[in-house]
Structure formats: C-alpha cells, structure tokens
Amino acid sequence: MSAGRLIVWRHGRTEWNLHDKIQGQADIPLDTVGVAQARAAAARLASLAPTRLFASDLQRAASTAGELAALTGLKIEYDEALREIDVDDWAGLTMSELAAVNPEAATRIRSGEPQRRGSNGETVEEVADRFADALSRISAEGSSEDTIVIATHGLAARVGICLFLGIPQANWPAFGGLANCNWVSLLPGRSGWRIEEWNAGSLPEPVMSDDPQR
Fold first, then answer.
1. Catalytic option among 67, 84, 122, 153
2. Which of 31, 68, 75, 214 could serve as a FRET partner for 58 with CA atoms 20 to 30 Å apart?
3. Residue 126: its H or E element
4. Whole-angstrom Cα distance, residue 22 to residue 27?
5. Residue 204's pLDDT is what?
6. Are 55 and 27 a contacting pair, CB within 8 Å?
C-alpha cells in the first residue's frame, strides 16, 4: 500500500531566517510573519482534505503543523527523522560569518561539494538518507485514499525528496530551495513517485534558508 499524495511543507519564517542565520537543529520559534504564513498556507492545504499530519519535532515545524491541525482536527505525528540538517556549532552564524571563520567550508557548501556541517554535524548526504527513509516509511503506511502532509525544513526536504525520487545527486542543485511555508506535492505513478508541484503555495519569494544555492 502507498499514500495517494504526499505534501512536504516547509515551516514559516523565523527571526533567524530573516537575518540569514544558520539554524540547523537549533529550536527557533516562528516569528509573527511566520505564524501568519503558516495560518494562510494551512487554509490552502486544508482544502486538499489531508488525512494524516506529520511534523519535525522542532518548534518552527511543529507550530506550522499546528495551524493545519487546528483547521482539520488531525493529530500531529512527530518524527525526529524530519528535522533539519544538524549543523552542530555553526548554529547562529550567518553564511558571511561562517566564511570569515572557515572560508574553505563556506566555499565547499556554495559549490555543492561534500562538507560536514559544524564540527560534528551531518553532511547533505546523511540528511538526505534519513529524510528519504522517513518519506518511504510514511508513504508505505498510507493508502491510496490518503493525503499526507509533512511539516519540515527546507534543506532536508529538498535533498531528501530528490533521493526519495531516485534523482542522481549531481542533479539535486537543479531543484531550487523552498520558500517559507511553501511545499512540494508528490503523487504515486506507474513507475514510482513523481513531482506534482515544487515550491508551491505563492508567487516566487526569496528563499531564506539553511540551503544556500546562491
């Protein structure tokens, strides 16, 4: 069995997003704009009649999911595998500050080369593995009647979805980062899952994220 649709939904804005600070797994709350974004996006997603709701246990994703739960009555199912990439002691730095203290690491990130985040954090490949595994597990638990919404984080979602779909890593940079409270819609097909919408939910907006592609 497999779910009928997966909606992978990035959380609303935080103050650290606004100031271009690397968040990783630091438990930063939504700011007032982020709460409004989550409320507006939840109203649109509720129209899809979701049947299950999963979320990262970090409060910015959990609070985003909470707006949809309030509209639909769904219970939030928390999953640590849906957390953002672990950046360890880089949390709170801007990319400019990181470049000042560790220019080699910043250059490798911007060029898409392998780079462990922080002293003991994760690589992009590691977060993609755990996120893709979570998508496989969650989708397998569903039925063709299910629309499952997953409230999560930008970088983890982007690379995890790509791996889940079997997209070669060399092509991952072709998939742009997710703006705050935008989502990816995935549908099952004859030969596996496919993308219905990418970065949906609004007109194009700047991507303020732990996922620098610029």
1. 84
2. 214
3. helix 124-141
4. 12
5. 63
6. no
